[in-house]
């Protein structure tokens, strides 16, 4: 069943891609193929291959249960929040929280969670910012 | 050359008088190269940065940050949006920057959203063919293009509509060809690649910068038909200019910097002074020579005008040949 | 044989205590940087260039330092591939195919050692090739026009079939997906934005590093989270930190074959180390696989390792002789040379041979240093595997983000990485292989661009694709590559023929 759904999704993607691809136009100078040729070709190929998935699906893969969806969902949210606040609160704080959070997700107890969080973020900050000369955000709220 | 020295002295004089009480001295200078390591902007930041430090014009080594994307647009947007008042930030720029501003490839950003500091040298455009090509001079080549545009392919490093393409269009316009479609330009990722294609005879001519073809020229594998400078270059006096062959075409890829907009006039002038000092130094002269850059100093208010004119010219050219609507 | 003199002089310079010290430091620093996913040799060299300047080193010493960093970073990338299943840079993608399974079987030390030795062999052969054959190679390289490059990449793609797991269709889907990802960005020939959704950051396309780190690293995290928390510790047992002589001997053929293929790929400007490692792996698999590849066959590790170091050496040919960088890292080396007022080009060997040979000698020495440092380095890195996963994985994830952000300063890249990661996770769940996707991303752009350039040059005449002897030869190779597996299988099945494999 999974493969059939996948096949369906990929087919839709292929169609969307091909339609969008065929609409590119260059007002001016263009080469004999133009910006549309490759996308259309690729989209068509993808569509054809996806039919294979639809009609000859592989046996079902193992999908993990709801608990793991939750863990994964929370992790992804954490990563996105990280991206959003990184420049605002600075590298050290955001990383501390992220690493601590991930650590806990993976089964660390309290002290490891805090320890890894602080350790990793501070160490990496100094490694990148000071040693390697690659500036990392100090956090806008700190005036960085 | 004498004229340049004269105006240079005048500029230096003005700066000396106006800026003698300057309070600004740079520290922890950062130079943004709006491209990946290895390109022209990266080179500008690194070589100028090194000399600034060697000459003690800045207290610490200059930190070079690469910020590729959008052909310089991402860095431009970044400076305008996030570093608008940073007095210790230089961004490498060149004609590639202005030509993109002229053709609005920076998503609506404009030249007056930053402050232009100075240009420190120019790489003049050059049209070259392989050593066995039947064209003896620019006239021959252009005649061949007019006779059968499809047969002559010009290779260049910039994308279609980019600076290398514009250079040949400038020459074509001077030769009386006004439709860009009559000039076959094929873009390769870099000037070096285009040159390699010339050597393999896959393209018939190359539009590039003097610095790019130096090596091959000296080895005798290519012939430069024309250089797009007002006078013959002191570093390569054997290359005739386009002008002296009857084609009024100048194509200079200047290399310089811009600053964020909201820095004080004092900061702007101080940087101008620093750049002027760097320009006069032996270190820079050596660097220029080693890299085929011709002397081309422009700074201060004069430079601002120059940039605007540069952009206007390119915009006009693009419209004339149909590149821009 | 004046090059011998040049070489000797180069080594003389390279062996002073200062330069040796720099080489060791560079190798170590480079390895560290390269081992961080997201940072590769190009960044490593670019980061340490200012250091070279601040120290006020003379050109030869600066070159030695940076050569050591370059190769160190390449080696570092392998570490990440083998131990973490995250490619450290583009050419390292092939390494994880056999390297990681080996690590999971407790052979991480052996894998790293084989990697080091193969890399060394690859570099040696490349240096020899470079010294003897540079002028010939240049003549060969310039024969490649856009049409020939296009066919070359088609050839590369025809080899992707070799990577097939069980489901051929899924492998093809993966490749096509990768090719589609490669079309994102401003169209190179016409500047028309394709699939960019108005984002200027996407104008230059999907950054391969983001694709790699996202697809492999983030998806790995998600996969990991599937299993229950405490029970999900992966205990990497480490049996030993070196490779036995027998293992090394077993790989000799693979190393040599990989070196030759990699070198040829490296010499062609624009083909590069990724193509080198890819071609080496797939051809080795074609040649040697009897069902062991994909599960930790040492030869599948040795071949691409030799291949990409050899390609890195080969890339020096166009860089030094033509001034054209063959890859991202040679571009940085080129920039460094220029800022030292040295202009590579055909006259470099005649006018400033001490620089050319000095560079070649430094690069080679960097390889030697790395080989020697291999044992202690392997020890250190392999200890990392014994760190509990709940410390290791979050830290690695953070480093991935860092590696990407530190270079581009763009939070958008972080989001993209997460997005690509989710995509990669889903692909993994439905058994669509990730490696062909990356290959599509890396090679797709070149394929399209060269086809269009070729047609531009010929004004639409498709005949240009068959227009030269080289082109026709390449097409023959494509044909062989597609049909040979079937032919070989048929021959083996014939009664009395083959080695009894039915």
Low-confidence residue ranges of chain C? 497-502
Mean pLDDT of chain B: 83
Structural class of chain B: alpha/beta
Q: Please state the CA-atom Rg of chain B, rounded to the nearest Å.
A: 20 Å
Going by helix content, strand content and strand pairing, the class of chain C is mainly alpha
In total, how many domains does the architecture of chain B comprise?
2
Residue-averaged pLDDT of chain C? 79
How would the global form of chain B be characterised? Answer: globular
Largest sheet of chain B: 10 strands, mixed
Element pattern of chain B in H and E:
HEHEHEHEHEHEHEHEEHHEH
**Regarding quaternary structure, how should these chains be classified?**
heterotrimer
Distinct helical segment count of chain C? 20
Please name the two chains that share the biggest interface, counting residues whose Cβ lies under 8 Å from a Cβ on the partner chain: A-C, 69 and 66 residues
Estimate percent helicity of chain B. Answer: 40-55%
The outline of chain C comes out as: globular
Query: What kind of sheet is the major sheet of chain C?
Result: 2 strands, antiparallel
Summarize the structure.
The complex is a heterotrimer of chains A (144), B (325) and C (502). Chain B is of the alpha/beta class and 325 residues long.
Can you walk me through this structure?
Helix content of chain A is 70%, strand content 0%. Chain A is mostly helical and 144 residues long. Chain A folds into two domains: 2-55; 66-142, no CATH class. In chain A, helix 3 (66-89) runs antiparallel to helix 4 (91-105). By secondary structure, chain B is of the alpha/beta class. Chain B has eleven helices and ten strands. In chain B, strands 1, 2, 3, 4, 5, 6, 7, 8, 9 and 10 form a ten-stranded mixed β-sheet that branches. Chain B is globular, with a radius of gyration of 20 Å. Residues 15-21 of chain B have low confidence and may be disordered. Chain C has one domain (2-493). A two-stranded antiparallel ribbon of chain C has the order 1-2. In chain C, helix 5 packs antiparallel against helix 6 (108-142), helix 6 packs parallel to helix 13 and helix 9 (208-224) runs antiparallel to helix 17 (389-408). The interface between A and C is large, with 69 and 66 residues.
